Amino acid sequence: PKRQLLNDVHVLDLESMAWDTPTLQGSSPSPRKGSAACVHLERYILIWGGGSHAQPREGDVYSLDTVDLTWQMPVVEGPPPAVRSGHTGAVVGDCWYLVGGGDNKQAMSTMAVLCLTSPSLKWAASVAVPPAMVAEGQTVLAVDNKLVAFGGYGGTYSNNVHVYSPPEELLPQASASAASVPSQPVPPRAQPDPSTAAPQGSQQLEAAQKELERLRETSASEVATAKEAAASELQLMRRQLAAAQTAKASAETEVDTLNAALADEQSKVLKLEATLAETLKQKEVLEKALEAANAQLEEGKKKPGIWGYIAGTDAVSPGKTAANGKA
User: Are 26 and 72 contacting, i.e. CB atoms less than 8 angstroms apart?
Assistant: First the structure.
């Protein structure tokens, strides 16, 4: 599933080139990313560091027994180093050197050292490393008691090669038990044939150089792919920006048109309001004139005059007066 951390184990058989997922026992590490691993005593796989969603940085050491297929948490003496993720490491002699990584706040400028001597594991004092090796995701190899580091990310991606020599006290030394054994005659040692024997260190160095060259080619290919993807993404973003700007210009034009139409409608409303006010004034004048005319009419009806005489309403006719006298 997308963005889900895992803690399963898969095994690749290098002869048949077939993958297998074994069933494991014991308490396994939590799902995580950015951890480091090494082989111990040609039987155990040690896991340290990394992060998970619940615990961004893990500091416990886990051991996977490849024979019994069992997870364990071995006892580790000494003060543990600062937890980290994105680090890498290599084994030189009896020590596992863990370089780089970070804790979401800063990159680790010290190298953690885990001594793998029996009967128990032990954290040694952390060792400062050159600033060039303060990076995440770099590749570290052990070559002739030296650490060879390649690449990594420390603010910018790098394809540089760095060689680090661990302190003398951490390099493989003759054990005290071996020193206490009485000396025995040493049989003469056969001299290798110069025509066929090559120094082991030179072979290892040549293999390391080939590996570094391969990593450089891989890094260059990845950088080219990343640049191409970034260019495509940038082109897509530019097209989207142009479309957004066109849509914005169209929307602004439409807003200007609507504002103009609104201003025209507001002007019409103002004219109608002025016309309505003038009409109301004229109505008021006409109503007053009508009231005055009605009042004059009523006043004329109350007063006798020629029109009332003519109409026979306001004067008594002579015939009616004589009749009334006789009676």
Answer: yes
